[in-house]
Amino acid sequence: MFGGQNMQQMMKQMKKMQAKVQDEQAAIAKTEYTGKAPEDLVLAKFNGDRQLLDLQIKPEVIDPEDPEALTDLVMEAVNDGLQQIDADTEKRLGQFAPKGMGL
């Protein structure tokens, strides 16, 4: 079916592609992503492994009479950061996925 030479060439290409994928995954893991709520009232910093590294809340947002507002802003910042990780992962690794298969 496949000649020995073709199989060896295909294996070399697979190893090369696997190394590129690993390099991109390492780069994503090292990258920091900062999710933001409107007016930067809440900032949520993540690494590419989706670990929350820092959460900053501006004091003027803390209203004991309205804790739901703070909750909403934190959720916006966290979701924004996670969406950035997803978009960057798709951009970097999407080229290695077969067509029609999302990451």
TrEMBL record:
Location(s) in or outside the cell: Cytoplasm, Nucleoid
A GO CC term attached to the entry: bacterial nucleoid
Origin superkingdom: Bacteria
Keyword hit for Cytoplasm: yes
Entry keyword set: Cytoplasm, DNA-binding
Major localization class: cytoplasm
Record-linked Pfam families: YbaB_DNA_bd
Record GO terms (molecular function): DNA binding
PANTHER family: NUCLEOID-ASSOCIATED PROTEIN YBAB
Quaternary context: Homodimer.
Family as reported in the entry's similarity comment: Belongs to the YbaB/EbfC family.
Function (record text): Binds to DNA and alters its conformation. May be involved in regulation of gene expression, nucleoid organization and DNA protection.
Protein name: Nucleoid-associated protein IV68_GL000653
Organism of this sequence: Weissella halotolerans DSM 20190
